[in-house]
Amino acid sequence: MKIVLLAAGNDIHSVRWANKLSENGNEVHLCYVSNQKPSSDKFNSKVSLYELKIPAPFGYYLNVFQLRKILNSIKPDILNAHYSSGYGTLGRLVGFSPYLISVYGSDVYDFPYKRKINMNIVTKNLNAADSLASTSYAMALQTSKLINYPITNIHITPFGVNVEKFSKRDVNKNEDEIIIGSIKKLAPKYGIKYGILAVNYLINTLLTDKERNLKIKYYIYGEGEERVDLEKLVDQCNLQDVVEFKGRIPNETVPMALNELDIFLGTSVLDSESFGVAIVEAMACEVPVIVTDVDGFKEVVDSGNAGVMVPRKDYKAMGIELFNLIQKPELRNEIGEKQRRRVVKEYNWINNVEKMEKIYANLKNKVK
Questions:
Q1: At a CB cut-off of 8 Å and minimum separation 6, what does 362 contact?
Q2: Where are the domains of the chain?
Q3: Which of 42, 130, 248, 326 has a 20 to 30 A CA-CA distance from 177?
């Protein structure tokens, strides 16, 4: 099948979809605006890349003629835009069919409510698509509310993980050390500051004399506009010897980073965190997760069984759950094993991509 993806070249989601669809024997072409070039995560050589000359945001309107020329040359079976806002606009304006929009989170939770014109853009784009896809039921429900569209007509296409790549590995761990970790962009919506505050509460309020011999570390992977403020918070909490900012890492090294951890924190504060891929990756590696109660995490984590959930922004509750898991290594192992089973059943990437291919094929035949 000939597939054209309209998506950011520097987004790991774009890379993974394009690469796996290509590996499955599809002819995959990816078009991206010029200020979203591929970066550390690499496309495989079989994926054809096209740089649209005009950068975002104007490029979502002004690259129509270039994209139309590309589509006329390729003659694809399907056009799939990632995000209903920017690339969704470009996909609508180019007028190609069959056309699928994959919603991502902020495009349906946040963007439409910032300005009235934004709502008009997104609803117009969603209504122009032949079909819609969402990584979660929660986000599908939000999308259906925007355009009065039956949720049953929105395809659920989880962004799962390679369960062979993301699995538990033998790592030499120091029994006197507990490593907590987060992997996320350093931006306010992801609530990393609450992870820092939770660790501070754990160390300075909850640990007893017995546990004070433990060496607690908090590894924060990711980069973003909030890094300076987070570093200041670490200084204010006197956690310079505890918190380590590890920077952004390519997806291929994430499994090893996860296997170093004893506990993973998902600290997001907005429902536009609509799925939580990093959470699923940690679960696949049998690292027990403590997450906030945002929509996407509620769907992924079976709280109290395969993972632990706390109210968003409640760093004290998160600290208490950290303390509980630190005290009970057998519980950490039990939760980790249950998480792994859940991921293998629900979020196996191979199955997720095969489902998307079926959606493409059905849409192609339906629109003919």
A1: none
A2: 2-159+349-367, 177-346
A3: 248
